[in-house]
Specification:
alpha/beta, seven-stranded mixed β-sheet, six-stranded antiparallel β-sheet, 19 helices, 35% helix
C-alpha cells in the first residue's frame, strides 16, 4: 500500500478531530480469534486492514485510510456486512496484523499426531474450519475448460430435465448433484471429489460471490443462456461438513404463464379469486409451505390487475421475476430495510395494489390490514396448514378479530400436485370402497383412476409439470361474525365446508385425481385428510 502524503495525513487528522472516524491505538490490542475469522489473513495483509469488533451486521475494522472506498466495498462483499472504519497508524496496523494472525495460528491445535478414535469425525466440520485452500490455484483451475464445461453441463441438463432447483452436495468421497423436478429430488450424477473446490469456485465466480469466504452462507445470482432460452439463477451457499453446499434456483422468465386459467384452479376456487380481486379494497392471503406456488399465484393476480390506470407495487425478499409495469422493492435486512419499514414508506407512494412477499411480524400485518381498510388491495402470504387456521394465527400475532373480519376478502391455502404426463397417461380400475383417506363421494368399488406409464417425454417418471390445489375461504357475513365472536378454527371450517363453495385441499385434489389430472398417490402425499 502506498504511503499517505502529508496532505492526506492532514486531512485524516481533521477527520479524527471532528469524530467522523475515531482513531485507535493498536499497540497493545489483542483481538479475539472469532473476530479475526471475518477477514482471512491474506485479505487483511492485501488491504492492510484488521477486524476489531462486530455488533449485529456491523463489522468495525482498523484501516489507515477510511476514505478508500474500493477497499471498503471489497470488504462488504467478502464479509456480507456493513463496514465501520476506524483510523490506525500504518506501522501499528501492520504489526497488529502480524501479531494477531500469528497468535491465532499458534493457538490452533495440531491434530496431525492425534490418533483417530472411534466415532471421531476428523474430516468433518472442524477440519473444514482449519482447512486452507490455495485460493489462487482454485481460481485458476475454475477457469479451465473442463471445469467450465462441467458446470455448463450441470446447468444445461437441469434445463433439459425441467428442473426448478439444482443441489450440489459435498460428502467425504464424492460430490452429489440432484435436480428437483416437479417438486421431487432426483439424483443425476456425481462430481469427482478432486474437482469439488474448482466447481464450487466456478459457480461462486459466476454469482459474484467471494471464493475466499467459506465459513458463512452467501447468496448471489447470475444469468445463464441456452440455445433456446435465458434463465436467471439464484444461488445460495452454506458451509457443511465436507465443504460448501450449493443450491441453485432456476427462474425461467419465458416459461411463466401469468394467467389464472393456467393455474388449473377448480371452478369454485376460480370464482372465489376472480370475485375477490374485483373488489376495490381488501386483503387476499395465501397460505402454504415453501415451494407450494404461492408467489406464482400472487404474480398471476398482479398481472391480472396490471392496467394503465393502476399503480402496482411489491415488497419481496428477494424479487424473483421482474414484472413489467410493477414497482418491485427488494428487502435488504443487512441495512435494516425490512417489510414493515418499506411498507410504511411505500404507502406514501399512492399505490392501488400492494403485494407483500411474506408476513413475518405483527407490525407488518397491522400496517397491511389498515392499508386494506383504507382503499388498497393487498396480497400477501402466511405459513399455515390450511385456510381457516390463518385466522387463529393472525389473532395469535396480536391482530384484533374485528380488523381480520373487515379487512380480509379471501384466504386460500395452496399446494402443488404433479400432473400426469399426457403422452403416457393410462386408466385403470381400483376398489376404493373401503378407503377412508379419500372423500366419501369417491369411495367406489369400481373407481376409474389414472397414472403415467413413463416415457421419454417425462423422463420415465409418469409426471410432467404441476397444478395447484386450492382451499379458498371467502369471507361472507356469517364468517365475519364468527371471527368477531372468536369462534374456533374447527367451527369456521365446518361452516365453510357445509355452507359455502369451499373445498378442502383433499377434496380439491381428489376432484383433479378422478378427472385424470393427477394420481391418487399424489393426492395422499401432498394433502392432509380434513
Amino acid at each position: 500500500m502506498e504511503k499517505l502524503s502529508s496532505l492526506q495525513k492532514k486531512h485524516l487528522h481533521t477527520l479524527c478531530k471532528n469524530n467522523y472516524y475515531p482513531p485507535i491505538d493498536l499497540s497493545s490490542c489483542i483481538i479475539n480469534d472469532d473476530i479475526l475469522d471475518y477477514i482471512p489473513e491474506k485479505i487483511a495483509k492485501t488491504h492492510n486492514v484488521i477486524p476489531i469488533s462486530c455488533m449485529g451486521y456491523v463489522l468495525t475494522i482498523a484501516i489507515v485510510d477510511p476514505l478508500n472506498i474500493a477497499t471498503i466495498d471489497s470488504l462488504k462483499l467478502i464479509t456480507l456486512m456493513e463496514i465501520s472504519p476506524v483510523i490506525a497508524d500504518e506501522q501499528q496496523l501492520k504489526a497488529a496484523i502480524e501479531l494477531n494472525y500469528k497468535r491465532k495460528k499458534e493457538a490452533e491445535p495440531d491434530t496431525s499426531l492425534i490418533p483417530e478414535e472411534p466415532g471421531d469425525t476428523p474430516q468433518g466440520f472442524d477440519q473444514f474450519q482449519r482447512e486452507q485452500i490455495d485460493v489462487d490455484n482454485v481460481a485458476k483451475l475454475s477457469k479451465e475448460t473442463r471445469i467450465i464445461n462441467a458446470v455448463n453441463k450441470i446447468l444445461s441438463d437441469a434445463v433439459t430435465m425441467r428442473a426448478s432447483d439444482i443441489h450440489i452436495e459435498p460428502f467425504e468421497n464424492e460430490v452429489r448433484v440432484r435436480y428437483r423436478i416437479d417438486g421431487i429430488l432426483h439424483e443425476t450424477k456425481v462430481v469427482e471429489k478432486q474437482f469439488q473446490p474448482a466447481v464450487i469456485a466456478r459457480i461462486k465466480i459466476m454469482s459474484r460471490l467471494d471464493i475466499t469466504q467459506r465459513r458463512i452462507p452467501q447468496d448471489g445470482r447470475f444469468s445463464f443462456k441456452t440455445k433456446t432460452k435465458e434463465l436467471d439463477v439464484r444461488v445460495s451457499t452454506v458451509p457443511v461438513d465436507f465443504g460448501e453446499k450449493i443450491v441453485m434456483r432456476l427462474l425461467d422468465k419465458e416459461n411463466i404463464n401469468l394467467s389464472i386459467e393456467s393455474l388449473g384452479f377448480s371452478e369454485a376456487a376460480y370464482k372465489a379469486f376472480t370475485d375477490a380481486i374485483k373488489k376495490p379494497l381488501g386483503m387476499i392471503l395465501l397460505t402454504g409451505p415453501t415451494g407450494s406456488g404461492k408467489t406464482t399465484t400472487l404474480y398471476t393476480l398482479l398481472n391480472t390487475l396490471n392496467t394503465e390506470s393502476r399503480h402496482l407495487l411489491t415488497i419481496e425478499d428477494p424479487v424473483e421475476y421482474n414484472l413489467w409495469g410493477v414497482s418491485q422493492v427488494p428487502v435488504r435486512h443487512e441495512i435494516g430495510l425490512d417489510f414493515s419499514q418499506i411498507l410504511r414508506s411505500t404507502l406514501r407512494q399512492s399505490p392501488d395494489v400492494i403485494m407483500l412477499g411474506e408476513i413475518r411480524d405483527s407490525e407488518t400485518i397491522d400496517i397491511a390490514m389498515k392499508a386494506a381498510l383504507t382503499g388498497h388491495i393487498v396480497f400477501s402470504t402466511l405459513h399455515t396448514n390450511d385456510a381457516p387456521s390463518a385466522i387463529s394465527r393472525l389473532i395469535n400475532m396480536g391482530v384484533a378479530p374485528f380488523l381480520i373480519s373487515f379487512s380480509i376478502n379471501l384466504i386460500a391455502a395452496q399446494r402443488l400436485v404433479r400432473r400426469i404426463c399426457p403422452a403416457c397417461r393410462e386408466s385403470y380400475q381400483q376398489d376404493l370402497s373401503g378407503n377412508t383417506e379419500i372423500p366419501l363421494q369417491y369411495r367406489k368399488k369400481d373407481a376409474i383412476l389414472y397414472r403415467g406409464k413413463g416415457c421419454s417425454e417425462c423422463s420415465n417418471t409418469g409426471y410432467k409439470g404441476r397444478i395447484a390445489v386450492i382451499e379458498a375461504l371467502s369471507f361472507d357475513n356469517t364468517i365475519r361474525d364468527m371471527i368477531i365472536r372468536k369462534k374456533s378454527t374447527e367451527e369456521i371450517r365446518d361452516y365453510a365446508l357445509k355452507n359455502t363453495t369451499m373445498l378442502s385441499l383433499r377434496e380439491d385434489a381428489s376432484e383433479k385425481c378422478f378427472k385424470g389430472e393427477t394420481t391418487l398417490e399424489e393426492v395422499l402425499r401432498v394433502t392432509t385428510n380434513i
